[in-house]
Amino acid sequence: MSPKRPGGDGPFPRPVAPVIPKGEPGAAPTVERRVPPSAKTHKDGPDPDDLYAALDLGTNSCRMLIAQPKGSQLHVVDSFSKSVQLGQGLEASGRMSRASMARAVGALKICQKKLSKHRVEVDRARLVATEACRRAVNGSEFIGLVKRETGLELEIIKPEEEAQLAVVSCAPLVSTRTEQLLVVDIGGGSTELVWIDLSRVPKLERPKAIMRLHQGFDYDDSVFPRAKVVDWISIPLGVATLKDMYDDVTDDGARFALMSWFFEEQLAEFSPYTDAAEQTLKGFQIIGTSGTVTTVAASHLGLRRYDRNKVDGLRMTSTQIDTVINGYLALGPDGRRRDPRIGRDRQTLIMSGAAILQALLRAWPTDRLSVADRGLREGLLYAQMSRDGVLEDGPY
């Protein structure tokens, strides 16, 4: 199971549409910046003219956000999240099962009703599917089923776009002191890692430079300071697929150790894995975005009821993370099942996610990890709003 990189001449794809100078045949019309009110409303609720939607159908969960632009941030109008376990059994059979597809379609019907209720325009909604649909031999068949049953047109995106959007979503959490940034997105079926060099970007411009990566990573350096993507990798192992690989190991501690060791082996193809080990990293920041990372943070804070405002942006030390993970191991499967901090949807997957997280902290010795309760959905929304010119420049 080798990590994935795209073909071509760079670590990220260029935009599909060519950039044509203004005034020449085929050039896109000039788009004037629309500056919406901070919370523009309609007599029946938020003004549909300002609403955008992003749906992420992953290997384990179906998530959707409907939001308005608000300055340089997002104002969430409605949201949806449900565990659908679309990738259940995929590792063994190579196919999505009828039961898992039925669960996903059920969740997508709810999303369709929300989109209709808020009257979100088709060109302001991106509905994407990721690793399970990429890998399954019946992925295209499933996309057709979704269209027939719900009317929604899902788009299977490539690993490189998934990585790109995860990075953009984390822009507001990038410290102005950060010179080397590693963004880690632990999904259900894959894990994306992106290493970015910010050392040549003025400190106050660093978060903005990350936000501009939605433009396709080839904007003019003479106009804006550029964040340099050193390397990226998509490892086809996430919390669900890694768990399935070691389901036959009965000892809880041994299974955890094997998962962590195996995941670290997959990092060998990622150039910063060896390069960073040979030097002392200055101004290094890891941002982790996933249900695993936010669950570990909630456990550290002792939250019996999840609170995004307390978790998003939290910085945890490696010692604090190890303490939480060792506590999970001490609880055992039965104890984790009863732990309200973990939750029923996460308890069967938390140890495979923790194994990935611990391997990453072992690979790049650092005493801090920034927790991001954000990901593909936020990246999709930021990219759409930036495209339409309705966000203020930069993430702040």
From TrEMBL:
Q: Where is this region: Disordered?
A: 1-50
What molecular function terms (GO) are annotated for this protein?
A: pyrophosphatase activity
- Where exactly are the transmembrane stretches of this chain? none
CDD domains found in the cross-reference section? ASKHA_NBD_AaPPX-GppA_MtPPX2-like (cd24054)
Task: List, alphabetically, the InterPro entries matched.
Answer: GppA/Ppx_hydrolase (IPR050273), Ppx_GppA_N (IPR003695)
Q: Bias category Basic and acidic residues: which stretches?
A: 31-46
- Ppx/GppA phosphatase N-terminal domain residues are 66-386
Q: What is this protein called?
A: Ppx/GppA family phosphatase
